[in-house]
Amino acid sequence: MEQGLMRIGVSLPDNLLSRFDEIIGSWGYSSRSEAIRDAIRNYIQYYDWMNEVEGERIGVISIVYDQDKKGLLDSLMQIQNEYCKLMLSAFHVYLDRESCMEIMTFKGNGKDIKGAAEKMMALKGVKHVKLTTIALDTIT
What we know:
By secondary structure, the chain is an alpha+beta fold. Helices cover 40% and strands 29% of the residues. It has helices at 14-26, 32-51, 72-82, 110-121; strands at residues 56-66, 87-94, 99-109, 126-135. It has a four-stranded antiparallel beta sheet, covered by helices on one side. Strand 2 (87-94) and strand 3 form a beta hairpin. The longest helix has 20 residues, at 32-51. It is globular. The termini are far apart.
């Protein structure tokens, strides 16, 4: 048992908690707390991995967002314009009436590509962001 455990309260929408319970049941977790601890560890590990993005990289940012969220499309376009010298391509997909997916490829400094992903992550109405990068010297 971990020492120094602290109790926290979290408010979640019913559909998110139901889905989480389905997943933790299928993966064999003994409790929500155990699954939440594991999820937080993974989140921290992903954060640490994202902060190690340095040097010249090829990157892919995929985002899913609510296309009806007021001002969101303008904000996404501003970010894309800010990083246009790094952007190689963008691909837009309508997932359903509300949700869209954008897949963007970049080439340039890893910290700059990461900066674009972080700015997109911070926008209200963005449901999911995933950054993947590869160091250029590893593909030659």
